[in-house]
Specification:
Number of helices: 3
Strand content: under 5%
Number of domains: 2
Distance between the termini: 157 Å
Structural class: mainly alpha
Oligomer: single chain
Number of strands: 0
Shape: rod-shaped
Order of helices and strands: HHH
Length: about 140
């Protein structure tokens, strides 16, 4: 009878060990599957993040170049502004317009026309071509 009890105890221990090994194997396989899925998700997220970072670096370089170009244009505009201010300080337009109103009117009208053409060109409007008035026929003598 003692042999039967020992056999039952040994079979119980062996069965428990086999069941424990089987449970450990199934649990390990489930963890490996979950970790593999998580790794795939993380790799996809990392690739997306790397692509985003590369795009942001390209944008930064492009914006830096555009900013430098804008700064250069601003510097040129400020120099031109200073030139114009010096010209206006040098010439007294009020006094000149009282002495020679026709000359000042022609200059201001020509400058205004030039400015409007420039604004039309910048804004993309179709700039009208200047028309040359037809000369009047000369009377026969």
């Amino acid at each position: 009878m003692l042999k039967i009890y020992l056999l039952i105890i040994v079979l119980g221990l062996v069965g428990g060990s086999v069941y424990g090994g089987y449970y450990y194997y199934k649990d390990s396989q489930e963890r490996i599957r979950i970790l593999t899925e998580n790794t795939a998700k993380l790799e996809t997220a990392k690739k997306l993040q790397d692509d985003t970072i590369d795009a942001m670096i390209e944008d930064r370089e492009k914006f830096e170049a555009l900013n430098n170009e804008l700064q250069t244009n601003l510097d040129k505009a400020n120099v031109y502004k200073d030139v114009l201010i010096n010209k206006l300080r040098k010439h007294n337009l009020a006094k000149l317009s009282l002495k020679k109103p026709g000359l000042v009117e022609k200059k201001i009208n020509a400058g205004t026309k030039k400015l409007f053409r420039s604004l039309e060109r910048i804004s993309g409007a179709i700039v009208p071509t200047p028309t040359v008035p037809a000369s009047a026929p000369t009377p026969a003598k």
